[in-house]
Amino acid sequence: MADEMSPRERMLGALNHASVDHIPLCFMIFAAMKKRSRDGYDFVERQLEMGLDATVRIPTRPLDSSMDHRDLPGLPVSFHPDVGVNEWREERPGEPHPVVLHKEYQTPAGTLTTEVNMTDDWPYGNHVPFFDDYLCPRSRKFLVEEREDLEALRYLLVPPSEGEVEAFKKQAEADRDFADGHELLTTGGRGVGMDATAWLCGFRHMAISSIRQPAFVSELVEIIHEWNCSRMKVFLDGGVDLFVKRGWYEGTDFWSPALFRKFILPYLKREVKIAHDAGARFGLIMTSGSMPLLEMLADANLDVLIGVDPVQGKGTDMPEMKRRIGGRVCLWGGVNGFITVETGTRAQVSAAVEEAVRAMGPRGFILSPVDNVREDSPKAWENIEEMIETWKRVRGI
Question: Is residue 101 part of a domain?
């Protein structure tokens, strides 16, 4: 057993497959705690009081108050200065969704348009965000449909401005000082790849286009990759220890292994190398459909697969995952957040923690609910307490 480590040392040890004093417990996302926190620093300190191995996600304070990209936080998403945006609503009485929201982006290379059904649970009023999961099932017309739309799209995917970079650097410096003072790991990014194609084009259109119009898909993912790298550089220059990319929509729930190899893997390899060249580690969030891709993820030199979900993750087999890539890729997760932690019994939570630790510990493993604990209810907090108590009992296995 190693001497007692700081949270930073423990997390780095897990990422490096080294011996640690005990398995770390670090929540991927913890919305229930955020609701109770004054700010980003209070959010971290509350987790430390619970004994968790919290990280500092840079920036701790939002740099953009707009609702255009809630599912891609960290840096503003700004357009070319020559882009104009118009929005309006249309009433269609008698239809299942009688209000349709319209948005157009006027660029020097043409106009892109989208139409979205305003459902009862639509959270944005008359506004249509640029990037958001709510767009996927509600869009009547997606923003990008043909290869001819891509030149206009380039005007919407531009690198961060000098002012945005400077604001980020200023916040990152304060956040690093806070992290250093508490001996915590820093994370940042929310890089994006195929998740952005879902927001821009829709799942169905991308799946069909990958077969019928591969040149269109190739050019689209190249544009997104270049844009992602321009944002990635800002985080790496800001000194994050772990750059995180979202790949919720990159698993085999959406893409076959052959299509993953063709359209996703080359860019993932490039981005992992960029992070490593900057002295940072690279994590990919993929909570379902990862099993057929494990060897490709390891071959990409991925440092950590974030979101190992034994309940809602399609096909997830924790012991098999550990056997196949456990010595090369750190595994982060192990317990379902919604079904187990938010709605399960204390006994179910305890059993899930024990199973995860047996299957994926002791090295190269970070325990977490997957992918979030949102519910701020007495039952959820009782189960969080049970998770922590069980972790403390078995974390040294």
Answer: no
Res 267: pLDDT:
97
Three-state SS sequence of the chain: CCCCCCHHHHHHHHHCCCCCCCCCECCCCCHHHHHCCCCHHHHHHHHHHCCCCCCEEECCCCCCCCCCCCCCCCCCCCCCCCCEEEEEEEECCCCCCCEEEEEEEEECCEEEEEEEECCCCCCCCCCCCCCCCCHHHHEEECCCCCHHHHHHHHCCCCCCCHHHHHHHHHHHHHHHHHHHHHCCCEEEEEEECHHHHHHHHCHHHHHHHHHHCHHHHHHHHHHHHHHHHHHHHHHHHCCCCEEEEECCCCCCCCCCHHHHHHHHHHHHHHHHHHHHHCCCEEEEECCCCCHHHHHHHHHCCCCEEEEECCCCCCCCCHHHHHHHHCCCCEEEEEEEHHHHHHCCCHHHHHHHHHHHHHHHCCCCEEEEEECCCCCCCHHHHHHHHHHHHHHHHHCCC
In order of 19, 246, 286, 305, 317, the CA distances from 283 in angstroms are: 20, 9, 10, 6, 20
Residue 96 lies in a domain: no
* pLDDT mean by block of 10 residues, the chain; 397 residues: 86 97 97 95 98 96 82 91 97 92 98 97 95 95 96 97 95 97 95 96 95 97 97 96 97 96 97 98 97 98 98 97 97 98 97 98 97 95 98 91
CATH number of the domain bearing residue 212: 3.20.20.210
Give pLDDT, residue 1: 46
Nearest residue to 138 (alpha-carbon basis) of 104, 101, 105, 103:
101
pLDDT of residue 2: 55
Return the closest-CA partner of residue 307 out of 343, 282, 283, 272: 283
- Global pTM reads 0.95
For 15, the domain range is 7-76+156-394
Q: Would residue 367 count as lying in a domain?
A: yes
Number of separate domains in the chain: 1
The Cα 332–Cα 28 span in angstroms is 8
